[in-house]
Specification:
Largest sheet of chain B: none
Order of helices and strands of chain B: HHHHHHHHH
CATH class of the largest domain in chain A: Alpha Beta
Largest sheet of chain A: 6 strands, mixed
Number of strands of chain B: 0
Shape of chain A: globular
CATH topology of the largest domain in chain A: Rossmann fold
Mean pLDDT of chain A: 91
Number of helices of chain A: 10
Number of domains of chain B: 2
Mean pLDDT of chain B: 92
Helix content of chain A: 25-40%
Oligomer: heterodimer
Distance between the termini of chain A: 35 Å
Number of domains of chain A: 2
Radius of gyration of chain B: 23 Å
Low-confidence stretches of chain B: none
Strand order of the largest sheet of chain A: 6-7-8-3-9-10
Bound molecules: adenosine-5'-triphosphate, magnesium ion
Strand content of chain A: 15-25%
């Protein structure tokens, strides 16, 4: 059984139909990537999955339990198992970076103060951040904020990790470090990870499963190896649009 | 014939608009109570809520001490001067100035006017802070962690203000009357002795209770209404500003209406 199952997910805003019936599954221990053009509905899809958007139609199952049928307590306990990196970071701007990472630990962990500090430092080191513990989010760069957001998302060792463009705004080298880190966490702790991305490097690095969304519909899905050999025109058009990737594809 | 049509259209429009007003009013009030229902839940972690309470107490309560003190002193002085001028009649004993000052400060000025000022100061603060958190997805981030964002953000504020506003109002009463005494002493509109006799005559201690009851209700209304406007912001910086204004206007109106109702109930 897949960890997360989505059946016929539909979501509209006023007149605009953003998700037009998406069905897919996400497996444990795998990095699942969602790709698609800007405005295609990736963020709306991710937010619908975690229950931040009320969906219009369809079902979302977490380990067989339907999200919309859960009562408040079940939903709450499910959410303590979720980590989320928002596209705009959503860091708590009145808290220092260390306190941002510690926030969920303070709320839920019952750890001692020094254990919490150790855990926060561990998470920050994982995303290659040092000596910024006492700074505030506004005092570090955009890429650093992204990494703090990831550190915060993994603080409580989530079972489900959702990342909305975790490496946008990062240099290629750091982006790969972050990609590999996400994959490592996913495999080591056997969690279910879903990542929205535009970044074709990520697709090639860590795409265990890739879903291509266009105009609110799932047009294609497969692995990173399959994406290189697919005949699907849409996806070739999208993924191999740059000269670099065109030449890679030609030389395969 | 033409006029007849115009009338029909007018009538329909009238019903249409009043209908719209009613449904949107019901919608607003419904959402307000749904939010309250989310606020009054058991905290996930008492210690964190207490921490939030102390920081809200400082931000929303202690930081109002200055403005409340200054306004109370000056308004107390002005009330005394004006009352003295208006009671300048040989048939009315001078110490009545003290009584009148005391009553207007305790009954109306301190609880109601100071609460209105706090509706502006505290209300805009709550609505804009929470609104910014909403548009920058910080509230979503709380929810996704499994934290009841409404309760964590609003409950400590409600308790902080319900606890601290009465203290502010009692302080305001003292300072207001003291301002009146200073006016009597330095401007000489009435002799300080007469003023002191006045403020001690015919004292009804229930008036203080009445004022503090009002204050607690006002504190609840100001916090929850402002929080409502902050929590449900949609959009960006402009909407945060718009909702902060709406928060101040609505909570001020709520304070005025509640003042009328509570006065009817408690003194009527
Ligand atoms: N809260 C909202 N209210 C109304 N419309 C929305 C809302 N959120 C998203 N949309 C609309 O849904 C569509 C998809 O948006 P979404 O943010 O999911 O795109 P995306 O695929 O994440 O794009 P990007 O790669 O640029 O982040 C857009 O047309 C957008 O206008
Ligand atoms: Mg997006």
């Amino acid at each position: 059984m897949a960890a997360i199952e989505v059946h016929n997910l539909k979501k509209s805003f006023d007149e605009q139909e953003v998700l037009k019936g998406i069905s897919t599954t996400f497996e444990k221990g795998k990095t699942n990537l969602i790709i698609g053009q800007s405005g295609s509905g990736k963020t709306v899809f991710l937010k619908s999955l975690i229950g931040l958007h009320q969906i219009d139609e369809g079902e979302i199952l977490y380990d067989g339990r339907e999200l919309s049928n859960m009562d408040t307590n079940a939903k709450k306990s499910l959410r303590t198992d979720m980590g989320m990196v928002f596209q705009g970071n959503a860091l708590f701007d009145s808290l220092s970076i260390e306190d941002n990472v510690k926030f969920a630990l303070d709320m839920f962990s019952g750890m001692s103060s020094s254990e919490k500090t150790d855990r926060a430092n561990f998470c920050l080191e994982k995303v290659h951040l040092k000596d910024v513990n006492n700074k505030f989010p506004a005092e570090v760069s955009g890429g650093m904020q992204k990494r703090v957001a990831l550190a915060r998302a993994i603080a409580l060792s989530p079972k489900y990790l959702f990342c909305d463009e975790p490496n946008s705004g990062l240099d290629p080298k750091t982006a790969i470090v972050i990609d590999n880190l996400i994959q490592e966490i996913t495999q080591d702790f056997d969690i279910t990870t879903i990542i929205n991305t535009h970044d074709m490097n990520s697709v090639m690095e860590i795409g265990d499963k890739i879903i291509y969304i266009k105009h609110g519909l799932k047009v294609w899905s497969g692995t990173k190896d399959e994406i290189l050999s697919t005949d699907n025109e849409d996806i070739n058009d999208f993924v191999f649009c740059s000269k670099l990737f065109k030449s890679i594809k030609k030389n395969l | 014939m033409k006029l007849y049509f115009v009338l029909i259209i007018r009538r329909q429009n009238y019903f249409y608009f009043s209908d719209m007003f009613l449904t949107s009013a019901i919608k607003y009030i419904g959402r307000y109570f749904i939010l309250l229902g989310k606020v009054f839940r058991r905290p996930e972690n008492m210690r964190e809520y207490v921490k939030a309470f102390w920081s809200d107490l400082e931000l929303l309560g202690l930081n109002s001490l200055g403005i409340v003190s200054i306004i109370s002193l000056f308004v107390g002085a002005v009330v005394t001067i004006q009352t003295a001028f208006n009671l300048n009649d040989p048939l009315i004993p001078n110490y009545y100035v003290g009584i009148a000052t005391r009553e207007s400060i305790i009954l109306e000025f301190s609880p109601t006017i100071i609460s209105l000022i706090l509706a502006g100061k505290v209300g805009s603060n709550i609505a804009s802070t929470m609104g910014s958190m909403r548009v920058s997805e910080q509230i979503d981030a709380l929810d996704i962690m499994g934290i009841n964002s409404a309760s964590y953000l609003i409950l400590p504020k409600i308790i902080a203000l319900i606890f601290f506003n009465p203290i502010l109002i009692v302080l305001s009463m003292f300072l207001g009357i003291w301002g009146g005494y200073l006016a009597a002493t330095f401007i000489g509109v009435v002799s300080p002795t007469d003023f002191l006799v006045g403020i001690q005559s015919d004292f009804n201690s229930f008036y203080i209770v009445y004022s503090l009851i009002k204050t607690v209700f006002f504190a609840f209304l100001i916090t929850t209404i402002s929080a409502y406007y902050g929590y449900y912001v949609k959009g960006g910086a402009v909407e945060v500003g718009i909702n902060a204004t709406k928060a101040v206007v609505s909570s001020s109106i709520a304070v005025i209406v509640a003042n009328y109702i509570l006065t009817q109930i408690l003194l009527g």
